[in-house]
């Protein structure tokens, strides 16, 4: 009579299998972001907390305009010229202000205008512009070249023109952002200048926001 074989008769005496530990995960090339670029917390300038906030004073606005003007890599690639009208592009906006880049071909002019309730700071960054202003005290004129700043208050009445033979570029900051620009005929200069002076003297329109 054949002997029956007891299958798995000794299994109960075998220890339970122990799973092998999984290898620690590694990048396929053995490198990580930290090993390549370094620990970002080791570079304090990447986590600065003392960076200036948006400007709120006339001095802060003037400093911002100077900084933007000095950063040619920021604005120079954006410059365009339009033979039919002055070209402009908005460079930056912030709480209560905006910054514009303008270009002027020879002969292009803004015409006599004011900026409504907005104050402003402007500078020329390429070429030269001529400014003519009108006030109750009469007419004034000046040449604007790179490096200088012009600051104006609400109601300031002036005209800017490129009277040279070369293109010009300027940067303008308005606070609050420019929402109106009233045009005046040149013949009405004295009267408009007096009205602008009276408007600028109003207490609620004279301060820089």
From TrEMBL:
<feature type="region of interest" description="Disordered">
    <location>
        <begin position="1"/>
        <end position="21"/>
    </location>
</feature>
<protein>
    <recommendedName>
        <fullName>Cysteine dioxygenase</fullName>
    </recommendedName>
</protein>
<feature type="binding site">
    <location>
        <position position="115"/>
    </location>
    <ligand>
        <name>Fe cation</name>
    </ligand>
</feature>
<feature type="binding site">
    <location>
        <position position="113"/>
    </location>
    <ligand>
        <name>Fe cation</name>
    </ligand>
</feature>
<dbReference type="InterPro" id="IPR010300">
    <property type="entry name" value="CDO_1"/>
</dbReference>
<dbReference type="InterPro" id="IPR014710">
    <property type="entry name" value="RmlC-like_jellyroll"/>
</dbReference>
<keyword id="KW-0408">Iron</keyword>
<dbReference type="GO" id="GO:0016702">
    <property type="term" value="F:oxidoreductase activity, acting on single donors with incorporation of molecular oxygen, incorporation of two atoms of oxygen"/>
</dbReference>
<dbReference type="InterPro" id="IPR011051">
    <property type="entry name" value="RmlC_Cupin_sf"/>
</dbReference>
<dbReference type="Pfam" id="PF05995">
    <property type="entry name" value="CDO_I"/>
</dbReference>
<dbReference type="GO" id="GO:0008198">
    <property type="term" value="F:ferrous iron binding"/>
</dbReference>
<keyword id="KW-0560">Oxidoreductase</keyword>
<feature type="binding site">
    <location>
        <position position="158"/>
    </location>
    <ligand>
        <name>Fe cation</name>
    </ligand>
</feature>
<feature type="compositionally biased region" description="Basic residues">
    <location>
        <begin position="1"/>
        <end position="14"/>
    </location>
</feature>
<keyword id="KW-0223">Dioxygenase</keyword>
<comment type="similarity">
    <text>Belongs to the cysteine dioxygenase family.</text>
</comment>
<keyword id="KW-0479">Metal-binding</keyword>
């Amino acid at each position: 009579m054949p002997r029956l074989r007891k299958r798995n008769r000794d299994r109960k005496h075998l220890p339970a299998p122990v799973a092998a530990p999984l290898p620690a995960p590694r990048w396929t090339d053995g490198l990580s972001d930290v090993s390549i670029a370094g620990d970002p917390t080791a570079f304090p300038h990447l986590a600065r907390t003392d960076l200036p906030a948006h400007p709120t004073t006339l001095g802060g606005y003037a400093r911002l305009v100077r900084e933007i003007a000095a950063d040619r890599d920021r604005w120079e690639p954006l410059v365009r010229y339009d033979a039919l009208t002055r070209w402009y592009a908005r460079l930056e906006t912030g709480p209560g202000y905006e910054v514009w880049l303008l270009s002027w071909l020879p002969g292009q002019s803004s015409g006599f205008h004011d900026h409504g309730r907005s104050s402003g700071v402007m500078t020329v960054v390429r070429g030269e512009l001529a400014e003519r202003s009108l006030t109750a005290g009469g007419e004034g004129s000046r040449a604007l070249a790179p490096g200088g700043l012009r600051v104006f208050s609400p109601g300031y009445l002036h005209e800017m023109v490129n009277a040279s033979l070369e293109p010009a570029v300027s940067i303008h900051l308005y606070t609050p952002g420019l929402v109106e620009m009233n045009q005046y005929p040149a013949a009405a200069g004295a009267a408009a200048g007096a009205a602008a002076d009276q408007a600028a003297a109003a207490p609620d329109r004279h301060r820089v926001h």
